[in-house]
Amino acid sequence: MGARERGSVSVLAAIWIVVAALGMLGLVRVGDAAIDAGRAATAADAAALAGAAADDSAARRAAAANDAVLISIDRTGERVQVRVRVDDAVAEAAAVRYRLP
């Protein structure tokens, strides 16, 4: 090994460590976004069901119980459609209230 080659492996190893760390950071961010999307979908489902079973305030409480913010609620007859936000994720869900005869 010549004097010019000494330490070149250390530099390459350091570069690979930085690249790997950045890749892991990217994966963590993607994972967080996926978790937020799932939480938003769950909150939207809960809010839609609560809204269909009761009223708008029940939908808001159901969203808040799932750490979400109710963005909108639309009622058309027995059908309720909601939009909620959890961090950067937004989800929609709908529910219909069926009345037993």
CA radius of gyration is 24 Å
Number of discrete helical segments? 2
Strand arrangement, largest sheet? 1-2-3
Order of helices and strands: HHEEE
Whole-number count of domains? 1
CATH topology label: Pantoate--beta-alanine Ligase, Chain: A,domain 2
Total strands: the figure is 3
Quaternary status: single chain
Please outline the major beta sheet.
Answer: 3 strands, antiparallel
The helix fraction, in percent, is 55-70%
* Unreliable stretches: none
The end-to-end span amounts to 89 Å
Provide the CATH architecture: 2-Layer Sandwich
Query: What is the top-level CATH class?
Result: Alpha Beta
Q: What is the strand content? A: 15-25%
Structural class by sheet pairing and helices: alpha+beta
Tell me, briefly, the overall form: rod-shaped
List the helices and strands and how they pair.
Layout (H helix, E strand, L loop, with lengths): L7 H46 L2 H10 L3 E8 L2 E8 L2 E8 L5
Antiparallel strand pairs: 1-2, 2-3
Helix pairs in contact: 1-2
